[in-house]
Specification:
The structure holds two protein chains of two kinds.
Chain A lengths: L2 H7 L3 H6 L1 H22 L6 H26 L7 H18 L4 H24 L5 H20 L4 E2 L4 H8 L2 H5 L7 H19 L1 H11 L1 H6 L4 H27 L1 E2 L7 H11 L11 H20 L4 H24 L1
Antiparallel strand pairs in A: 1-2
Chain B lengths: L3 H5 L4 E12 L2 E12 L3 E5 L6 H8 L7 E6 L2 E2 L5 H6 L2 E4 L11 H5 L15 H15 L14 H13 L5 E5 L7 H16 L3 E5 L3 H7 L2 E6 L2 E7 L5 H9 L2 H4 L12 E10 L3 E9 L3 E6 L5 H8 L7 E6 L2 E3 L4 H6 L2 E4 L3 H5 L6 H6 L15 H15 L15 H14 L4 E5 L7 H16 L3 E5 L3 H7 L2 E6 L2 E7 L5 H8 L3 H7 L1
Parallel strand pairs in B: 3-8, 3-9, 6-7, 7-8, 13-18, 13-19, 16-17, 17-18
Antiparallel strand pairs in B: 1-2, 1-4, 4-5, 9-10, 11-12, 11-14, 14-15, 19-20
Helix pairs in contact in B: 15-16, 16-17
The chains are: A mainly alpha, B alpha/beta.
């Protein structure tokens, strides 16, 4: 085959316009427009402290959305990530504060709790063949209940272990570059996103994530252990939820058992705004991170403009529906 | 005729399948089927649609589990329980339906499930995937870019990817289920060259095809199946095509060929002008007369169903006009279509044609509820029962009672219920999408007779079918489509398997080049 024939088959401008990269570009454009808009509207928005605040507010949702990106690319959904996150935070609290275990063990316990929940989700979905929507809706309430039971309805504080709070709220960057006090939580999110992106684009797990969402039956007929890899995807999603749980516990210096439901919607919103298709097969981590930033920028900006919180909900969810509509329009041609 | 026994009992067998039984709910797909394959031969497997060829091969490929029977691979009895196991045993299948992942690239599709790995655990090596793919394409003489997304390829190119994928397994047995259906003559010749190379290397190739003239070119032996049973195995060099055909059809088909109305009324009831929707429908124009059966032929994915759905208002179209009895109409929904007297009988009766859990009389009334309503939304049960009775006798629907849920009826009788439904809705234009799919031979001829009767009564009928004999026997005229275009309109006299296939494979680039 000559190189010439290869070149003629390269993407034309038209097909680029249709591609999923387009929605990412648009999302990034929207983020910049939001930033400029809010900066013009309020001097309080355009301060370094506020930008750091936005970054910090993105961290937990960003990490949560990483796992959800994988699940949605397979054509599935995970509604349980919010309360799995809570459960992981509570388990970390139980290990560190109630049982006086070392901090690293507590963090591991939190990660393991989330991973286990994801593993259960994966098996229920791929082997018991329960639709993901139902399976993870069930898990949402199971996790909520368990969190309340284990914590006995009370927040668990990490007052004996100040180092735990440092993990998310300290600033390694600030120590290196004085004055540039960006909390570690933000670095952790970017680090996790980088790893997630590598997993999605370079590893066998990422490949099967796309394959499952693209044509599950064809993947099965290619001899791929579909149930096993689907379980792996939900397990990974649980792992990221566990990570978000440890992060939020560190950030709040406490495990709040009543917190968590509602977070899944923000995470799904971030994924969808970032151009990942709800019908599966397409998506990217970069898009998800941009999506998470759009949501926290919007929340932050609206709050600074004194828009009541209830209205923020209306605005965010309207944007999510528009983003899905855009995806459907793109798909139709 | 050669002695069939002599063609079977050869010593060096690569594969033997015998006494295979398989049933699906309501259908005995295979009963006592058998098949064998030697090293280094191309063995054609032929039979009508529904004869059980694909089912038999899907059992070999581990996609279906057999109910009974033995599979002996190189003198070892094997139980093939999954596609992965079949691959492991060296059995590769190219399926009739394309089985690709549209969002992945060509290279990624070919090596799915056995990606080349980098040194780091779990990391896939896309560079070497592409290199391996390019080497494979060079070996097979294919012009493909491993980096293209499969969704951006034409159906023919996608088929090539499937073939490359199957061949990349170094298979001992290669099963091809209608591999040439979407290919042009030049591409078929390329494919056959590859098949001959493989055969000479000792690979056993199973070739399922409807195009009998191909068999002479490529196969060494041919096995005929009918109604899920083994009929005979012949050496291709001794067999005549007529002989194969008569083995395939038995006697049932030709005696059921019914009379068409001599001359359809000249009044044009439906005219479609320049219908467009993206790449799916391109400048579709045709007309349909009263009392006419207009066949729609083409390969899978040619856009025939899409035309029907556009006319019926199930999908929107971007531009074009639809005229009914000379007047332009705007059909925006199936509701509009029904008002204009158009009925659509989907290829998937169970999903789109019937309310399965409802009974016969209710289904018959479904598209014309207004006729059966009294005040305040009350159903007129007397009228419903009367109409149901009428349809059962008019269409000869075999059902124990009016109250039988349609899911318990056979495929043929279900189809009749759908026809009854559209007759009740006073439709003049009926679009049949694969009217005999999944219907057994006996009921088929009844459906054919019914289609003829409807045409005689002055209904205008569009019949979409993938079975060429059905198209040839039933149509006054045949519209042939390829890649979203109408590539030919043939009168009954000019339509032959060959002429239809010629138009059905007339791809866009050919048309553009000749334009």
């Amino acid at each position: 085959m000559t190189t010439q024939t290869i070149k003629t088959e390269r993407k034309t401008v038209k097909s680029l316009f249709r591609s999923d990269a387009m929605q990412r570009v648009m999302a990034f454009g929207a983020l910049i427009v939001l930033f400029i808009g809010f900066s013009l509207a309020s001097p309080f928005f355009r301060t370094f402290e506020n930008f750091v605040g936005i970054l910090l507010a993105t961290a937990v949702n960003g990490v949560l959305a990483l796992g959800v990106t994988f699940v949605i690319i397979t054509g599935g959904i995970d509604l349980s990530v919010g309360t799995v996150m809570t459960f992981s935070a509570v388990m970390t609290g139980v290990f560190i504060t109630n049982w006086h275990m070392p901090v690293p063990i507590g963090i591991l316990a939190g990660l393991l709790a989330g991973t286990t929940a994801g593993f259960v989700n994966g098996n229920v979905i791929s082997r018991m063949k329960i639709p993901p929507f139902i399976a993870t809706l069930g898990m949402l309430y199971i996790m909520k209940g368990l969190s309340l039971v284990i914590s006995q309805l009370k927040p668990i504080y990490f007052n004996d272990t100040p180092i735990f709070r440092e993990m998310a709220m300290g600033s390694v960057l600030g120590r290196i570059i004085p004055g540039f006090e960006v909390p570690n939580a933000v670095l952790i999110m970017f680090g996790a996103a980088f790893v997630a992106s590598l997993i999605l684009t370079r590893t066998i797990l990422g490949r099967y994530t796309f394959a499952l969402g693209s044509n599950e039956e064809a993947t099965r007929l290619s001899g791929v252990n579909v149930a096993g890899w689907k379980t792996a995807v939900y397990t990974l999603c649980g792992f990221f939820a566990g990570m978000a749980g440890v992060l939020i516990a560190s950030r709040l210096n406490s495990a709040q058992p009543a917190l968590g439901s509602g977070y899944e919607l923000d995470a799904i919103a971030a994924v969808v705004i970032g151009g990942t298709s709800l019908s599966g097969g397409e998506g990217s981590i970069l898009g998800t991170i941009i999506g998470a930033f759009i949501i926290s920028t919007l929340t932050n900006g609206l709050r600074i403009l004194s828009v009541p919180q209830e209205w923020q909900l209306v605005v965010t969810c309207t944007i999510v529906i528009l983003a899905v509509f855009l995806d459907i329009l793109r798909r139709r041609r | 005729m050669t002695n069939p026994e002599s063609a079977i009992d050869e010593p060096k067998l690569l594969l033997r399948m015998e006494g295979i039984y398989k049933s699906f709910p309501g259908v005995q797909a295979l009963s006592d089927a058998k098949f064998d394959l030697r090293y280094g031969e191309v063995h054609a497997l032929v039979g009508e649609n529904g004869a059980g060829k694909s089912t038999l091969m899907k059992i070999l490929g581990g996609i279906y589990n057999k109910d009974a029977g033995r599979v002996i691979l190189e003198d070892q009895e094997v139980e093939i329980t999954s596609p992965a196991m079949a691959q492991h045993l060296g059995i590769s299948i190219i399926h009739q339906e394309l089985n690709l992942m549209p969002h992945l690239t060509v290279g990624q599709n070919i090596f799915i499930g056995r990606e080349p790995r980098a040194k780091i655990p779990f990391v896939v090596d896309d560079k070497s995937t592409n290199e391996k793919a390019i080497r494979l394409f060079e070996m097979l003489n294919l012009r493909l870019d491993p980096n293209t997304k499969v969704a951006d390829l034409t159906v023919a190119k996608q088929q090539m990817v499937e073939i490359a994928k199957a061949l990349s397994f170094n298979a001992k047995i290669l099963v091809m289920d209608e591999p040439t259906a979407a290919l042009t003559d030049a591409e078929i010749e390329e494919l056959f060259t590859i098949i001959r190379q493989l055969r000479d290397k000792g690979v056993g190739v199973v070739h399922i095809s409807h195009r009998l003239e191909e068999l002479k070119l490529i196969s060494d032996r041919v096995t005929v199946m009918r109604d899920g049973k083994y009929v005979n195995t012949l050496n291709t060099s001794d067999a005549k095509i007529d002989q194969i055909i008569s083995l395939m059809v038995g006697r049932t088909i030709f005696e059921s060929a019914p009379e068409l109305p001599e001359d359809p009324n000249q009044e044009v009831v439906l005219e479609v002008r320049n219908l467009n929707r993206g790449k799916v429908l391109r400048d579709i124009s045709f007309s349909l007369k009263r009392g006419e059966i207009l066949g729609f032929a083409g390969l899978i994915g040619a856009g025939r169903t899409e035309v029907a759905r556009a006319i019926f208002g199930a999908d929107a179209h971007e531009s074009g006009e639809i005229l009914i009895k000379g007047k332009q109409v705007h059909i925006k929904s199936p509701g509009d279509a029904v008002k204009h007297g158009i009925g659509y009988l989907s290829e998937d009766r169970k999903r789109y044609g019937l309310a399965l859990a409802m009974d016969v009389k209710e289904n018959v009334a479904l598209a014309a509820m207004k006729k059966f309503l009294r005040m305040f939304g009350w159903m007129d049960s007397k009228k419903t029962v009367a109409r149901g009775r009428e349809m059962i006798s008019a269409l000869n629907i075999k059902t124990p009672s009016l109250d039988q849920k349609v899911k318990f009826l056979s495929g043929g009788n279900q189809q009749k219920v759908v026809i009854g439904k559209w007759l009740t809705a006073d439709t003049d234009i009926l679009i049949f999408d694969e009217p005999t799919r999944g219907i057994d031979v006996g009921a088929k001829s009844e459906i054919y007779k019914l289609l003829n009767d409807l045409a005689h009564q002055g209904k205008a009928i569009i019949m979409i079918s993938s079975e060429l004999p059905e198209i040839l026997r039933m149509s006054h005229r045949v519209v042939v489509m390829c890649e979203g275009r109408v590539t030919g309109v043939l009168n009954a006299g000019e339509a032959t398997q060959e002429s239809i296939m010629k138009y059905a494979t007339m791809r866009t680039d050919v048309i553009l080049a000749s334009a």
